[in-house]
Specification:
signal, Rossmann fold, Zinc ABC transporter substrate-binding protein, 12% strand, alpha/beta, ZnuA-like, single chain, four-stranded parallel β-sheet
Length: 301
Amino acid sequence: MRINSKLLLAAAMLPLLFTATAKAELNVFACEAEYGALAKTLAPSANVYSATTAMQDPHQVQARPSLIAKMRQADLVVCAGADLEIGWLPMLQMKASNPKVKSTDKGLFFASEHVETLDKLTKVDRSMGDVHAKGNPHLHLDPDRMLTVAQALAAKMSELDPQNSGEYQQSLADFSQRWQAKIPQWQEQAKGLVGKKVIAYHSSFRYLFNWTGIEQVADLEPKPGLAPTSGHLASLLTRAEQGDVMAVIVSSYQDDRGAKWLGERANLPVVRLPMSVGGNEQSTDLFSLFDSLFALLNGVK
């Protein structure tokens, strides 16, 4: 009986092909650095690409050819949502023509759709400036909400890549255990911040302030998305002279000229907080991001 050598070779290759399929790497396109960091934590073997860094304004991104190419290759797109990326994500989706990431029914994931957002609006018009009807999108600065997002993202990864579901669920369990161990530490660090008042840009740190009990009493922007004017800064100086403001806060990507002007005249410290992973040298992952935020806020004298 003659044995077909080609059939033997094909049979020998089957286990290898199955292994290769099971080990296939998920291609993840993250709109913001925090979601890139979370995706890599939950899927260590995935190819994760972040479209922006903590040094960029995530509202304003150009649909560059390099971003289009990355989205064309993506199996999963992870974004904040709540219209944070409304000015550029639809354009990328259109130009990439990748049917896998066009809707949340498939490979599109919006973090804001899995938690309750703050500051939802029933009516929005251009006169209000850069506001979001679906709520404040910067929810990654709330440790409790981020844990919920991590659970939802791991479930989405398992749905898209069921053969590697075990990896995603184990990574989620590891992350959850470490994260829940850190929350009491951050709560302890937040105790000294309850009731403190700050002046800050935009509503970038709304969730962090809400979680810690800090009150933002004024905004450096006269309207969301507009640069400080001399008249507005003068009104902020009057407010600061009441003597109850702890500091002026800006994020890692925001222009600090108006903040410095106010800080100098009101004798207030200007604190630059990392907006995301990579926002300063200390913020190398989600854990160290929060460690750095609390160290900087508690370091204000």
